[in-house]
Design goal:
The structure is a single chain. The chain is α/β, with parallel strands linked by helices and 207 residues long. It has one domain (5-206): Isochorismatase-like (Rossmann fold). It contains seven helices and six strands. It has helices at residues 22-25, 35-58, 76-81, 131-137, 153-163, 180-193, 200-203, and strands at residues 13-18, 61-67, 116-120, 142-148, 167-176, 196-198. Strands 3-2-1-4-5-6 form a six-stranded parallel sheet. β2, α3 and β3 (116-120) form a beta-alpha-beta unit. The longest helix has 24 residues, at 35-58. The radius of gyration is 17 Å and the shape is globular.
Length: 207
């Protein structure tokens, strides 16, 4: 076990679940991915389901952030980055998590009554959501982060959690990317700069 983990004992933690939505998790939406990548995502979804169950059983808060893209209000910087030009048709058929479409729906596990659910517009679950304040209101001092994808919204959200002053742990067996190399690189970067990377079994005892 990482020697930093026992120092979280006695502090109030929460499980932060990022973007477990059909666009990123449902095999029906991942048909362009090779088989190993789909298997990685499926394994991570199983880990997320187990993490949520473990947190609930321990009485630990489960907090959800989900991407919602308004169909009439595109994220212009993202469109530019992906090569879309002004006047191009949008949302594209492959746009993830557009409000009112199946891709925005949850997958495999859903928030329970009373659990905090926040909507985000970008990769970062803290940007424009009030998440930091809501966590502090609940006395949360550290976060275990699970969700999809490790190289995008989990990376950005976990790094932002650290920037906002929360001790941050990323659950390696409850996240994945659509590319194994990107996944490994993301966890490596997080471990260097902002988060302890650990498996659920190492963390659940702290709840």
């Amino acid at each position: 076990m990482d020697p930093r983990l026992p120092r979280l004992a006695g502090r109030r933690g929460a499980l932060l679940v990022v973007d477990v939505q059909r666009s990123f998790a449902d095999p029906a939406f991942l048909t362009d991915l090779p088989g190993p990548a789909r298997a990685d995502v499926a394994a991570a979804v199983g880990g997320i389901v187990r993490a949520v169950a473990a947190a609930r059983a321990a009485g630990t808060a489960v907090v959800w952030v989900r991407l919602r893209v308004p169909p009439t209000d595109p994220w212009e910087a993202s469109n530019w980055f992906r090569g879309l030009a002004p006047g191009d048709d949008w949302p594209t058929a492959w746009e993830p998590c557009v409000e009112g479409t199946p891709g925005a729906e949850g997958y495999a596990v859903e928030p329970a009554d009373g659990e905090l659910v926040l909507t985000k517009r970008t990769y970062d679950g803290f940007a424009g959501t009030g998440l930091a304040d809501r966590l502090r209101e609940r006395g949360v001092e550290w976060l275990a982060v699970a969700g999809l994808t490790s190289d995008c919204c989990v990376l950005e959200t976990a790094g932002s959690a650290f920037t906002h002053g929360f001790r941050t742990v990323v659950l390696a067996d409850a996240t994945a990317a659509h590319d194994r190399r990107a996944h490994d690189a993301a966890l490596h970067v997080l471990s260097l700069h902002s988060a302890v990377v650990a498996d659920l079994d190492e963390v659940r005892a702290l709840w």
